[in-house]
# Entry
Amino acid sequence: MRESKFRVWDDNAQELVYEVGLTPEGIPYSIPAHAEASDQFDYYPSCHKMQFTGLRDKNNVDIYEGDIVQGSLRLHGDVGPIMRKVYMHKGCYMFGVWNAHEYFNKHQHIEVVGNIYEDPDLLEEAR
# Structure
């Protein structure tokens, strides 16, 4: 069973927040480092949730939905770089048009190079 972790892009603060939980209603929250009581939470109602895929790149970096990952593709005997967004489609994590788990298991050299929120310019390159 894969580890279930989430991160969120907080629209208000314009930053990624890691290690968040979800309320039963699906609202992300985290316990701030400065909190004195366990009932003090930061809630992120205006955010974009991204789930951990269960995969890690060549540098052991966790891969989440919304990450932009670089790998390579062999076409007609030539190997060329390929950069694509990781996303969920019909219950599967995808890397471009490939199933991410299958592609990443065959290609151990993949690397997270950014994400769609902090690096929107990379998203344009990844299309």
